[in-house]
Write a structure and sequence with these properties.
Radius of gyration: 19 Å
Strand order of the largest sheet: 1-8-3-6
Oligomer: single chain
Distance between the termini: 53 Å
Strand content: 25-35%
Number of strands: 12
Helix content: 25-40%
Largest sheet: 4 strands, antiparallel
Structural class: alpha+beta
Number of helices: 6
């Protein structure tokens, strides 16, 4: 099946005209929830993936099994571009829900970039944006304590609804721990302290930020 138009959600997402140009080279595949699409260190695949529907998470995992989540990607985003240098996969990617992904071979994607300089620049800018985000995460891990990192995560995920800051995504304590690079026990303690202190509330299984979050306590 060929790639259909995706919703253009951010500057890094492809517009309909570019999607049409790529559609001849893309195949659509469906991946069930909790399927590992790309494995860190793998050298056997070189495709680029465009998310048509669903969500995926990008993560790193140590030999001991400790996991750190780098980002969550949604429809219109892409991943796998780090393999363009013919190196191994730099991170693993797993579906968070049933996802439809358009798969493009590396050679076809490189030809597309060469033939579309405007998109090539857009692609470079998206890489810079992702690098800046990664540097912020490294800074947070290196310089700030767990409470600061949890507060930062919640604020970044929150969207304003009817004058309130709401986090619509379901977050388990394990999810929070993985995203801030902490143990589940530590993340749970910080989250409990935030609830007890009245900084956040649980309403209809959603997290509401009730008042300005402290950077640390």
């Amino acid at each position: 099946m060929q790639l259909q138009a995706l919703e253009n959600r951010d500057p890094g997402c492809m517009g309909d005209d570019l999607l049409q140009a790529l559609s001849a080279h893309a195949t659509l595949k469906i991946f069930p929830k909790n399927t590992v699409v790309v494995s860190e260190g793998d050298r056997t695949t070189d495709s680029i993936y465009l998310i048509r529907s669903g969500r995926v998470k990008v993560f790193l995992c140590s030999e001991a099994g400790k996991e750190v989540d780098l980002s969550v990607l949604e429809p219109g985003d892409y991943f796998g571009e780090m393999a363009l240098d013919d190196g191994p996969r730099s991170a693993s990617v797993m579906t968070l829900e049933r996802s439809e992904l358009a798969v493009i071979k590396q050679a076809d994607f490189k030809k597309f970039l060469a033939a579309n300089p405007d998109y090539a620049m857009q692609f470079i800018l998206k890489l810079i944006e992702r690098t800046r985000s990664l540097l912020k995460s490294v800074k947070s891990l290196a310089l700030f304590d767990v409470s600061h990192r949890v507060a930062r995560l919640l604020l970044e995920m929150a969207t304003e609804e009817n004058g309130k800051l709401i986090i619509n995504e379901k977050l388990s304590k394990r999810d929070i721990a993985n995203r801030v690079g902490a143990t589940r026990e530590m993340a749970s303690r910080v989250f409990k302290d935030l609830v007890t202190s009245g900084y956040i509330q649980m309403e209809n299984k959603k997290i509401t930020i009730a008042r300005r979050l402290p950077q640390q306590w």
